[in-house]
Amino acid sequence: MPPNLTGYYRFVSQENMDNYLRALDINVVLRKLVCLLKPDKEIIHTGDHMVIRTITSLRDYVMDFDVGVQFEEDLGPVDGRKCQTTVSWEGDQLMCEQLGEKRNRGWRHWLEGDQLHLRMTAEDEVCVQVFQKVK
Prior knowledge:
Elements: E1 7-15, H1 17-23, H2 28-36, E2 40-46, E3 49-55, E4 61-66, E5 71-75, E6 81-90, E7 93-99, E8 106-112, E9 115-122, E10 125-133
Antiparallel strand pairs: 1-2, 1-10, 2-3, 3-4, 5-6, 6-7, 7-8, 8-9, 9-10
Helix pairs in contact: 1-2
Family: Belongs to the calycin superfamily. Fatty-acid binding protein (FABP) family.
Subunit structure: Monomer.
GO molecular function, one term: lipid binding
């Protein structure tokens, strides 16, 4: 049985965000701005349905999906692309595959105690973020 990820998580740390954004062809000005942001995450996890909100002072990004069902994800607010996205469980990790223009694009969420970990990939770059559960 996969874990229930429901909760509100505050940003703790990140590694390699600039190189990850460069792999997505994000311009240098926007990369610098994004690297300064400290996003929070809010996850509502009800059975196979999930809503993941990434909350920043600049703008929010919302993913609303059913686990195991492919959908077209509009990443316009992120990098102007659309992807065919599938989110599924791989053991205790929530895994997202985003098929489109960029090779090896996707992410994984998993819990370690009361910390939420996020590993994002694009091309050959990996960015890792950590969030602390607050409620």
